[in-house]
């Protein structure tokens, strides 16, 4: 049996002294930057690779920070006097009384929770969660409350941080996503079906000094907020695609295949204020002859929403199953691992699942009678910049495209996006010289989209100026100079210009003025 995990009651008093504990951490420099400075680049990389002995070598001294690294990151067993030296006698007693610090058979103590520092939206924060298996050899139990992982970090990066009155963190877990909204939302409601998760989220919130702004509610999916609406919804739900069973509450919904993602995507808009947005992590199956784009889009209402569905990755069934079994520290070579793999893969085969996609879904509530505006696209390219600002801008761009009746697209002046690159790729010819392979426009930041264009569209884009001619006049000049029919050229160019606007390669001048 693992020495870590929910040995104590779901309701415990760690939130009562979380703020005092974090104050000690702050004074000692036990934050993301302080730890990196103490360990240095080599041992910091070892920390993220899950190599505890290297981390121990980087923190083998007697300073308070080094003791905190060994006790709270490596979960070393230490004399009770050393815990008291690290955090103070009063807090050491509180940690023991709350069963956050356990006493082993030798009389030494160790910390049975993860209380890890992270930089979230530019702020030092500490997340209270169950101990993961990255540095400690143990198997997380079915009630495991996850800390900060790759998925939660990616959702933080893809969620806007513009100011709003109210925000909902659906399925908060240990409270990671609500931390990302503390600088943006005046009031945050966080829900979870798991009382232990809410208990740890309460400690995370208290440690951030935000208890007066965060409301924590227990219940399934949207039930705790059934009659309420919010300006922003963030959700990292238990979206793992599999059998209708729950082996780990943080990732398994008990719903079949991708029904958990379907539930959140289909119901989110009902809980948004007009103009409000939802930002969701989700997964979906690739099934039979149905396209994944059609499948996910079908979960959205026919009217009243704008949605941007982004598939970031897709895995074949075998890879998907082995990845998630290894995530729970299960050896896929073991008898249990093989049995679990077989049941999962047979379920996929019986349901004609050929792949599993993963990504983000951003939804904005628009007019109830407006036809829904849905774009689903595959974006496997590396994205270095946070996606949140792009999501905000995307909704502004598509709103302009939906409602440009006062200023038709041909009468609009445009700004070419700063940093937009024109790439003219030529390959060596068989004999001599080079033959053009492709001409394209590429964004050098954000999603780094690429659009293949011809010489004519590239020249028209180059002629756009927010203080110069509108699109119709720009095309008219180009048509006259090159002997084209102006009306035919304009009609051919308009849908291509719309695509460039949608991906932010050119920006309407009046949209720049509005923002």
From TrEMBL:
<dbReference type="Pfam" id="PF05175">
    <property type="entry name" value="MTS"/>
</dbReference>
<feature type="domain" description="DUF7782">
    <location>
        <begin position="393"/>
        <end position="508"/>
    </location>
</feature>
<keyword id="KW-0949">S-adenosyl-L-methionine</keyword>
<feature type="domain" description="Methyltransferase small">
    <location>
        <begin position="151"/>
        <end position="282"/>
    </location>
</feature>
<dbReference type="InterPro" id="IPR002052">
    <property type="entry name" value="DNA_methylase_N6_adenine_CS"/>
</dbReference>
<dbReference type="InterPro" id="IPR056684">
    <property type="entry name" value="DUF7782"/>
</dbReference>
<dbReference type="GO" id="GO:0008170">
    <property type="term" value="F:N-methyltransferase activity"/>
</dbReference>
<keyword id="KW-0808">Transferase</keyword>
<dbReference type="InterPro" id="IPR055487">
    <property type="entry name" value="DUF7059"/>
</dbReference>
<dbReference type="InterPro" id="IPR052190">
    <property type="entry name" value="Euk-Arch_PrmC-MTase"/>
</dbReference>
<dbReference type="GO" id="GO:0003676">
    <property type="term" value="F:nucleic acid binding"/>
</dbReference>
<dbReference type="GO" id="GO:0008276">
    <property type="term" value="F:protein methyltransferase activity"/>
</dbReference>
<dbReference type="GO" id="GO:0035657">
    <property type="term" value="C:eRF1 methyltransferase complex"/>
</dbReference>
<feature type="domain" description="DUF7059">
    <location>
        <begin position="27"/>
        <end position="107"/>
    </location>
</feature>
<dbReference type="InterPro" id="IPR029063">
    <property type="entry name" value="SAM-dependent_MTases_sf"/>
</dbReference>
<keyword id="KW-0489">Methyltransferase</keyword>
<dbReference type="GO" id="GO:0008757">
    <property type="term" value="F:S-adenosylmethionine-dependent methyltransferase activity"/>
</dbReference>
<dbReference type="GO" id="GO:0032259">
    <property type="term" value="P:methylation"/>
</dbReference>
<protein>
    <submittedName>
        <fullName>Methylase of polypeptide chain release factor</fullName>
    </submittedName>
</protein>
<dbReference type="Pfam" id="PF25004">
    <property type="entry name" value="DUF7782"/>
</dbReference>
<dbReference type="InterPro" id="IPR007848">
    <property type="entry name" value="Small_mtfrase_dom"/>
</dbReference>
<dbReference type="Pfam" id="PF23186">
    <property type="entry name" value="DUF7059"/>
</dbReference>
<comment type="similarity">
    <text>Belongs to the eukaryotic/archaeal PrmC-related family.</text>
</comment>
């Amino acid at each position: 049996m693992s020495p870590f995990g929910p040995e104590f009651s779901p309701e415990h008093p760690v939130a009562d002294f979380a703020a005092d504990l974090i104050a000690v951490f702050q004074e000692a420099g036990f934050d993301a930057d302080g730890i990196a400075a103490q360990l240095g680049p080599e041992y910091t990389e070892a920390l993220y690779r899950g190599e505890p002995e290297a981390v121990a070598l980087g923190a083998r001294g007697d300073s308070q920070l080094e003791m905190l690294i060994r006790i709270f990151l490596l979960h070393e067993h230490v004399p009770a006097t050393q815990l008291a030296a690290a955090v103070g006698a009063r807090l050491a007693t509180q940690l023991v009384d709350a069963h956050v610090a356990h006493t082993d058979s030798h009389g030494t103590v160790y910390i049975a929770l993860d209380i890890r520092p992270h930089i979230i939206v530019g702020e030092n924060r500490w997340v209270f969660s169950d101990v993961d298996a990255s540095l400690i050899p143990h198997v997380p139990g079915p009630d495991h409350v996850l800390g900060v992982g790759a998925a939660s970090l990616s959702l933080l990066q893809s969620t806007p941080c513009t100011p709003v009155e109210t925000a909902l963190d659906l399925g908060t877990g240990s409270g990671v996503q609500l931390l990302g909204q503390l600088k943006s939302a005046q009031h945050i409601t966080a829900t979870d079906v798991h009382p232990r998760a809410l208990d740890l989220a309460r400690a995370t919130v208290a440690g951030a000094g935000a208890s007066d702004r965060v409301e924590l509610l227990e219940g399934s999916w949207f039930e705790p907020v059934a009659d309420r609406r919010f300006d922003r919804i963030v959700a990292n739900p238990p979206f793992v695609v599999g059998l209708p069973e729950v082996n780990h509450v943080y990732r398994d919904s008990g719903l079949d295949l991708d029904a958990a993602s379907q539930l959140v995507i289909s119901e989110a808009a009902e809980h948004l204020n007009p103009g409000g947005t939802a930002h969701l992590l989700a997964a979906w199956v690739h099934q039979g002859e149905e396209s994944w784009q059609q499948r996910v889009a079908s979960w959205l209402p026919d009217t009243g929403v704008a949605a941007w569905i982004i598939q970031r990755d897709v895995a074949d069934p075998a890879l998907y199953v082995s990845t998630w079994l290894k995530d729970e520290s299960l050896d896929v070579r073991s008898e249990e691992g093989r049995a679990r793999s077989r049941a999962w893969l047979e379920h996929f085969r019986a349901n004609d699942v050929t792949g599993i996609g993963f990504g983000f879904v951003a939804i904005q509530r628009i007019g109830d009678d407006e036809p829904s505006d849905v774009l689903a696209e595959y974006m496997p390219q590396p994205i270095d910049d946070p996606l949140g600002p792009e999501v905000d801008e995307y909704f502004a761009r598509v709103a302009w495209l939906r409602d440009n009746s006062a200023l038709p697209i041909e009468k609009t002046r445009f700004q070419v996006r700063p940093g937009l690159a024109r790439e003219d790729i030529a390959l060596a010819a068989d004999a001599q010289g080079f033959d053009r392979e492709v001409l394209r426009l590429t964004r050098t930041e954000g999603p780094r989209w690429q659009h293949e264009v011809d010489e004519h569209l590239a020249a028209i884009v180059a002629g756009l100026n927010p203080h110069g001619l509108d699109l119709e006049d720009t095309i008219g000049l180009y048509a006259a100079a090159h002997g084209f029919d102006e009306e035919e050229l304009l009609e051919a160019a308009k849908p291509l210009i719309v695509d460039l606007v949608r991906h932010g390669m050119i920006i309407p001048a009046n949209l720049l003025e509005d923002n």
